[in-house]
What we know:
Blueprint: H1 14-19, H2 23-33, H3 35-44, H4 65-76, E1 80-81, E2 89-91, E3 97-99, E4 105-106, H5 110-120, E5 142-149, E6 160-169, E7 174-180, E8 190-191, H6 192-202
Antiparallel strand pairs: 1-4, 2-3, 5-6, 6-7, 6-8
Amino acid sequence: xxxxxxxxxxxxxxxxxxxxxxxxxxxxxxxxxxxxxxxxxxxxxxxxxxxxxxxxxxxxxxxxxxxxxxxxxxxxxxxxxxxxxxxxxxxxxxxxxxxxxxxxxxxxxxxxxxxxxxxxxxxxxxxxxxxxxxxxxxxxxxxxxxxxxxxxxxxxxxxxxxxxxxxxxxxxxxxxxxxxxxxxxxxxxxxxxxxxxxxxxxx
Length: 203
């Protein structure tokens, strides 16, 4: 694995490493936590795998945006997990109603949620590209974005990506967004600069 921009760094704080997409730091943290602990932690927030988890998944897993949003919501909800649900109430033809309340389960300690919020809260503001930051003034938030680059042999533009995603949580809202093509080699180029403009418009 390489860091974003192919930079090489020495010791760096985890918050700074996540903000600058220093992938090698994330892999080292993954190794220190251990595969079994990571697997159990993901299962507690509803993310499971058909095959055994491997170290390379530290940089990205095959999960739905609903699962990722639920995972980030757990961080913002002091470690309490709610499975994603799309229906909260049904009103029948006889005017009777049935509501579906979310069921909280403790996925991890409040102190763990606080630490995760702390390391992720700095990633929404890009000091070198403030125009493209996802930071919303006055709103406590934690977020992470990521891209999957094309191989150099493909000849894609410098800012092209096969996939782009962003996940974020605030005290009241969590969201996960994916941009990409089902067939990235045939769908055209996904341009990072254009996606950043769209994120800016969304905020």
